[in-house]
Write a structure and sequence with these properties.
The protein has 347 residues and is of the alpha/beta class. The protein is built from eleven helices and 14 strands.
């Protein structure tokens, strides 16, 4: 496919760069789900709104738990064995919704059965484990997608387009906070590019905690990890020489993007413009009405649909990762997270 132009700024990156066909949200994939917890339930509800998706099976630690999940969320088959489910010829792709320490084991189980895999974030506990998982997927010729769903939201797609086209100039600083560090860490390669190499990483504290990731002498990401049970800011700021992008609360699943770009020829600083602020542009991206959740769902979980549709388009196109968050960006973030965790553990 050729690069597509004249598209809305929030167009999914895989479509914007001409890698996929928008119609392939209807490409048929039969999903199996490993894990019957809350996150898997919300994934199943979103899959029902994806045109090409069939929620074919769920596997849990007991068949009774799997059957209960299947009955509640409209899943066709239930298994008490993960291995049995991934071997089923009725499954094309597996969603891993188990606890973090089991992601590697369960992903490789599905990969070795020849299934595509979408694994909940963080993909792995270390960058080394992530490399092992990607190598297994490459050997089998299947997709392994790190499910950092933040990257698929229209507001984030819009932000990335602005960064890539130089709308805010050279990016100098990222500020991001959330209780789950992977959400803040992924903001660094989003802003600086996956091929940027961290030159220094300093971390302290557990939760609350913080890290500074340096990219040479004049660029850095300031990441904070507040307690989840607190009234934290939860925004991501991407600051360039010529403007600023704000992914508004909740920045891990944003529906609002704010852009501040001063007029041409002016210096983007209140301290040099007699306290005149840059003009503000605000963009709202409401969810499609096709996904509904109970009141106690996690914030903006309807946005799982954006990730599901991208996976369908990308598998249809023969891609093995989605351009929104590919292997290079995934490993970039996992390596940073590995160093942060090591620093915190060392005290």
């Amino acid at each position: 496919m050729t690069r597509t132009s004249n598209l809305p700024p929030s167009t999914p990156r895989d479509v914007r760069i001409g890698a996929t066909d928008p119609a392939d949200v209807a490409f048929p994939l039969r999903w199996g789900i490993i894990g019957a917890g809350r996150i898997s339930a919300q994934w199943a509800m979103c899959l029902h709104a994806c045109a090409g998706a069939t929620v074919a099976a769920v596997a849990a630690r007991s068949v009774d738990r799997a059957r209960e999940f299947a009955d509640k969320y409209g899943v066709a088959s239930a298994y008490g064995s993960y291995a049995e489910m991934v071997e089923s010829p009725e499954i094309d792709i597996v969603y891993i919704g188990t606890i973090n320490p089991l992601h590697k084991e369960h992903s490789i189980l599905a990969i070795e059965a020849g299934k595509h895999v979408l694994c909940e974030k963080p993909l792995a506990e270390t960058g080394a484990d992530g490399r092992t998982m990607y190598a297994a997927a490459e050997a089998r010729g299947v997709m392994l997608q790190d499910a950092v769903w933040t990257r698929f939201f229209p507001a984030v797609e819009h932000a990335r387009m602005l960064i890539e086209t130089g709308a805010i100039g050279e990016v100098l600083l990222v500020q991001s906070d959330f209780g789950d560090p992977i959400y803040t860490v992924q903001a660094a390669p989003l802003a600086f590019g996956s091929d940027a190499t961290p030159t220094g990483i300093t971390a302290a504290g557990r939760r609350p905690g913080a890290a500074i990731v340096e990219y040479g002498p004049d660029k850095c990401a300031v990441l904070t990890f507040p307690p989840m049970q607190s009234e934290f800011v939860e925004t991501t700021e991407i600051i360039g020489r010529e403007g600023r992008i704000t992914l508004e609360q909740p920045a891990h699943a944003p529906t609002t993007l704010t852009i501040r770009i001063p007029p041409p020829g002016t210096v983007p600083s209140r301290y040099r413009t007699a306290n005149v602020p840059a003009p503000v542009q605000r963009f709202e991206y409401p969810f499609p009405a096709t996904v509904r959740f109970p009141d106690r769902a996690y914030p903006n979980q309807q946005g799982f649909l954006y990730q599901a549709e991208a996976v369908h388009r990308c598998v249809a196109a023969g891609l093995r990762q989605c351009p929104q968050y590919d292997k290079q960006e995934s490993l970039h973030a996992l390596d940073v997270l590995t160093k942060i965790n090591a620093d915190v553990a060392a005290g």
